[in-house]
């Protein structure tokens, strides 16, 4: 009996999984494998929040595999070494893995391909598993990627996605040793955010079903309303592959303005992946060089991290991030703009902090969204600066979002909560403004206009 390996990475699901489906189609046994990669366990990528989400996602993946007669084979160590060991133990003929775009993923794929070739084992890399569209499939004439979103989206919208896969109904899994499923604390030291979401395919599908039952149709008019919390909350499940982007796009459709607006956001995710696939250095270097002489003041960065800038809308976003390991997209834009443009602190430092807490933080979306906000990325208006007070008035007009996250201001009624510096007495325990926004914005624009 032949054995094919489905090597899970960022595709922790049974349904609509090209990797698992391809391994099953070989008509033999399937070895569903996840390796707790020592390189990732030892890196800064695996944070307490991601470890907690991963732990629950692996348990749900194992449960789903057992429902169809299988189980998850878990190994710990250097990924290539562990895969080769299993290939030898089980006489595996084919290994299937999802394509990804990070520099680490590319190196992993190259090393794995070389090692398996020596074993006489084939490696098949499946595109459009992590994203809805293969990052290399859509490109303009004369370039390997789109640098502006709008023309990319027009092409993306006309490109037929792959067929959504139902997944195998029954698996035969070979008998071999598997490590015990890990608790979060066995993966990473430190406590996760207290209100962190729970990972897993079943959880993700319930959330998707609820979202598509109605809220998505109001997305176009409500998604920027900070207090309403009218977004899908699906981003962590897409990041870990508990849901596939292809299925979400196709099940959502574009029948209403809300659905069209939501699908457009999923296209942004693919857009950033295709940029990073073409420019892997953009994870750490400016996509468009601005030659910024960033402020080197650790005090400013720490004040921003702690949510104590004195600007309530900024601080509310940062405190939501600490509490949930997640932040509303509008709040991400506001807080990032404040750090990179009002405070003029290097976007990479902000991106690192987001990655340390965001459960949905991946290299493509986190780094390139930060570059977009900082004006070093693909934004066609790179020098605009978001005014936090105006953003608050527009997207949290009654102040409910701020009161939810800033206890020191919870007693202040209405929109006055956004301007505590105008009150007769300063709210106890809440700091004064760390910088003057208008002056900070002026200095940023002056720096950017200095011949660059």
TrEMBL record:
<dbReference type="GO" id="GO:0006950">
    <property type="term" value="P:response to stress"/>
</dbReference>
<feature type="site" description="Electron transfer via tryptophanyl radical">
    <location>
        <position position="347"/>
    </location>
</feature>
<feature type="site" description="Electron transfer via tryptophanyl radical">
    <location>
        <position position="294"/>
    </location>
</feature>
<dbReference type="InterPro" id="IPR006050">
    <property type="entry name" value="DNA_photolyase_N"/>
</dbReference>
<dbReference type="GO" id="GO:0003677">
    <property type="term" value="F:DNA binding"/>
</dbReference>
<feature type="domain" description="Photolyase/cryptochrome alpha/beta">
    <location>
        <begin position="2"/>
        <end position="131"/>
    </location>
</feature>
<dbReference type="GO" id="GO:0006139">
    <property type="term" value="P:nucleobase-containing compound metabolic process"/>
</dbReference>
<feature type="binding site">
    <location>
        <position position="219"/>
    </location>
    <ligand>
        <name>FAD</name>
    </ligand>
</feature>
<feature type="site" description="Electron transfer via tryptophanyl radical">
    <location>
        <position position="370"/>
    </location>
</feature>
<dbReference type="InterPro" id="IPR005101">
    <property type="entry name" value="Cryptochr/Photolyase_FAD-bd"/>
</dbReference>
<dbReference type="GO" id="GO:0009416">
    <property type="term" value="P:response to light stimulus"/>
</dbReference>
<dbReference type="InterPro" id="IPR018394">
    <property type="entry name" value="DNA_photolyase_1_CS_C"/>
</dbReference>
<feature type="binding site">
    <location>
        <position position="262"/>
    </location>
    <ligand>
        <name>FAD</name>
    </ligand>
</feature>
<protein>
    <submittedName>
        <fullName>Deoxyribodipyrimidine photolyase</fullName>
    </submittedName>
</protein>
<dbReference type="InterPro" id="IPR036134">
    <property type="entry name" value="Crypto/Photolyase_FAD-like_sf"/>
</dbReference>
<comment type="similarity">
    <text>Belongs to the DNA photolyase family.</text>
</comment>
<dbReference type="InterPro" id="IPR014729">
    <property type="entry name" value="Rossmann-like_a/b/a_fold"/>
</dbReference>
<keyword id="KW-0285">Flavoprotein</keyword>
<keyword id="KW-0274">FAD</keyword>
<keyword id="KW-0456">Lyase</keyword>
<dbReference type="Pfam" id="PF03441">
    <property type="entry name" value="FAD_binding_7"/>
</dbReference>
<dbReference type="GO" id="GO:0003904">
    <property type="term" value="F:deoxyribodipyrimidine photo-lyase activity"/>
</dbReference>
<dbReference type="Pfam" id="PF00875">
    <property type="entry name" value="DNA_photolyase"/>
</dbReference>
<dbReference type="InterPro" id="IPR036155">
    <property type="entry name" value="Crypto/Photolyase_N_sf"/>
</dbReference>
<dbReference type="InterPro" id="IPR002081">
    <property type="entry name" value="Cryptochrome/DNA_photolyase_1"/>
</dbReference>
<dbReference type="GO" id="GO:0071949">
    <property type="term" value="F:FAD binding"/>
</dbReference>
<keyword id="KW-0157">Chromophore</keyword>
<feature type="binding site">
    <location>
        <begin position="360"/>
        <end position="362"/>
    </location>
    <ligand>
        <name>FAD</name>
    </ligand>
</feature>
<feature type="binding site">
    <location>
        <begin position="231"/>
        <end position="235"/>
    </location>
    <ligand>
        <name>FAD</name>
    </ligand>
</feature>
């Amino acid at each position: 009996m032949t054995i094919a390996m489905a090597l899970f990475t960022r595709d922790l699901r049974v349904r609509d999984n090209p990797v698992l489906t391809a391994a099953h189609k070989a008509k033999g046994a399937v070895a569903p494998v996840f390796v707790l990669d020592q390189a990732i366990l030892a890196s800064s990528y695996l944070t307490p929040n991601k470890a907690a989400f991963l732990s629950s996602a692996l348990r749900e993946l194992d449960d789903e595999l057992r429902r169809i007669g299988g189980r998850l084979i878990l190994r710990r160590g250097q990924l290539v070494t562990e895969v080769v060991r299993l290939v030898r133990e089980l006489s595996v003929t084919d290994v299937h893995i999802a394509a990804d775009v990070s520099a680490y993923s590319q190196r992993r794929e190259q090393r794995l391909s070389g090692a398996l070739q020596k074993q006489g084992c084939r490696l098949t890399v499946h595109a459009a598993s992590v994203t809805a569209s293969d990052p290399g499939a859509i490109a303009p004439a004369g370039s390997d990627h789109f640098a502006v979103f709008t023309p990319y989206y027009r092409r993306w919208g006309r490109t037929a996605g792959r067929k959504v896969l139902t997944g195998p109904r029954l698996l035969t899994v070979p008998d071999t040793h598997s490590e015990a499923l890990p608790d979060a604390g066995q993966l990473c030291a430190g406590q996760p955010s207290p209100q962190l979401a729970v990972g897993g395919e079943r959880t993700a599908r319930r959330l998707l079903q609820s979202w598509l039952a109605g809220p998505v149709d109001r997305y176009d008019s409500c998604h920027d309303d900070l207090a309403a919390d009218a977004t899908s909350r699906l981003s962590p499940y897409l990041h870990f592959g508990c849901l596939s982007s292809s299925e979400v796009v196709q099940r959502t459709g574009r029948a209403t303005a809300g659905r069209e607006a939501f699908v457009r956001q999923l296209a942004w995710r693919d857009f950033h992946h295709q940029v990073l696939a073409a420019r892997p250095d953009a994870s750490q270097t400016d996509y468009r060089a601005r030659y910024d002489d960033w402020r080197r003041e650790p005090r400013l960065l720490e004040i921003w991290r702690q949510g104590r800038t004195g600007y309530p809308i900024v601080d509310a976003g940062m405190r939501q991030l600490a509490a949930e390991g997640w932040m509303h997209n509008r709040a991400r834009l506001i807080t990032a703009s404040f750090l990179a443009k009002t405070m003029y602190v290097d976007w990479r430092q902000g991106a690192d902090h987001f990655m340390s807490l965001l459960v949905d933080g991946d290299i493509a979306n986190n780094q390139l969204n930060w570059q977009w906000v900082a004006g070093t990325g693909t934004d066609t208006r790179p020098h605009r600066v978001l005014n936090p007070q105006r953003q608050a008035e527009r997207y949290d007009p009654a102040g409910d979002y701020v009161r939810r996250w800033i206890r020191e201001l919870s007693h202040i009624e209405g929109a006055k909560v956004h301007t505590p510096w105008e009150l007769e007495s300063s709210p106890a325990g809440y700091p004064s403004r760390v910088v003057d926004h208008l002056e900070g914005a002026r200095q940023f624009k002056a720096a950017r206009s200095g011949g660059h």
